[in-house]
UniProtKB/TrEMBL annotation:
Keywords: DNA-binding, Transcription, Transcription regulation. Belongs to the LysR transcriptional regulatory family. This is LysR family transcriptional regulator. Pfam families: HTH_1, LysR_substrate. Residues 1-59 form the HTH lysR-type domain. It comes from Parasedimentitalea maritima.
Amino acid sequence: MDSWDDIRFFLAVARSGSVRGASVGLGVNHSTVLRRVSNLEAQLGALLFEKLPSGYKLTPAGEEILDLAISMDEDSSLLQTRVFARDQNLTGPLRVALPPSLASELLMPDFAAFTQLHPEIELQIATSYEAVNLTTRQADLAIRLVYDQLTLPPHLFGTRLQDVHRSVYISREFQNRILNNPQCSARWILKEEDGPAPSWAANPDLEIGGPPINVSDMASQLSAVRAGMGVTILPCFVGDLDRSLARVAGSTSKYYGTLWVLTHGETRKTKRVRLFSEFIKARIALYSALLSGEAYIDDASKGSLTK
């Protein structure tokens, strides 16, 4: 074979079932994926995929080499990880994966502090609500909101940090409008992936009227509630820090998940990974009350949030 790297492109299409999904996952364009898969097919002298309306399906030849290709990919990742783990310098790249809201609404000032302390480290911040694969070094360290500890991959090394709670929020302007007009009702603002509002969020003092407003992401959810379009459920570290929002009167906070710092067995030996891990764990510990919803002050005139 002229290029073992073509295997990565084959696996990306096999795993995603589409050229588009593979191109997004690999960070290349559509034509590059097609070209590299075609190269592999030419080298092997066999057609590896059948193009169907529903996506790309492995042919018998593709099925036959899939396990071997996965094994090659895992061996390649292990080689890279072990070489990376030998690097004990406080220079070079450090890729950290975490949910977008955690980065933008809470931890970005802490990342800034880390880069000031260690300017030779190239901090790469990868935000996504999808879990990254630490084994294949999609990231060196992940800060993950875990809903069920049993879902954590057993081969990863993790530290359990703080519990995260959420509550029901409304814009202060919309809240005043409701107080001044008893006929005014609110609507739920819901993320599509979350489904209907949970029973714990129901409030007998708040009249809900009309169909919900559905959004696809938290950024739109935040914009909608700030604009006074209704009420919504947010993590306390997001809603309580936003002074344009207030918790709906009588609302409680509810456990949402737990923050974990995760690393791979080999990667965690690297000095800059260990350094960042200890740094961010200490910073997150300072936000314990905020994350658990215990830092909220109902009356904004009494002062700002404590941490």
